[in-house]
Amino acid sequence: MFDDFLVWSDPNLPEWDSRRFHQEILNEDMPEHVPIRPSPERIKVMARLVWEHDGEQWMPAEAARWTSTHVLVTWAEPDPRKPASLAWLRAEDVMRR
C-alpha cells in the first residue's frame, strides 16, 4: 500500500501512537456552504492531495458531494496520515477517472 511514497513519522511520539503518522492535507478547503444531502451517486475521480511532509500525491477516490467550487472526496484505502479518509478539495484538484 505504501510502496509509492515515504511515510513520514514524528520521532517524538511512541511507536504505538497513530498520531505519529498524521499529516495535514495542505490543500484541504471546506466550502462556505456544505451540501446537506449526499449526491445520488458517487463519481470515480483522481484527487490531488498535498501532504504536509510527503508533498503532492494523486490518489484514486470517489466524489461524494460537491458544489460549483468544491468536491468532497473519499478514498477506500486506509491511510495513517489521515485516518478519516475524506477531504474537501477545490474543484481544480479533482478530475474524473
Q: Could you explain the architecture of this structure?
A:
The radius of gyration is 14 Å and the shape is globular. The protein has strands spanning 43-51, 55-66, 70-74, 86-90, 94-96. A five-stranded antiparallel beta sheet has the order 4-3-2-1-5, with no helix packed on it. By secondary structure, the protein is mostly beta strands. It has a domain at 39-96. The protein is 0% helix and 35% strand. The protein starts with 42 loop residues before the first strand and ends with a strand.
The protein's oligomeric status is single chain
Residue share in helices? under 10%
Outline the biggest β-sheet: 5 strands, antiparallel
- State the low-pLDDT regions, or none: 1-6
Integer-rounded radius of gyration:
14 Å
* Broad shape: globular
Brief digest:
With 97 residues, this protein is mostly beta strands. It is 0% helix and 35% strand.
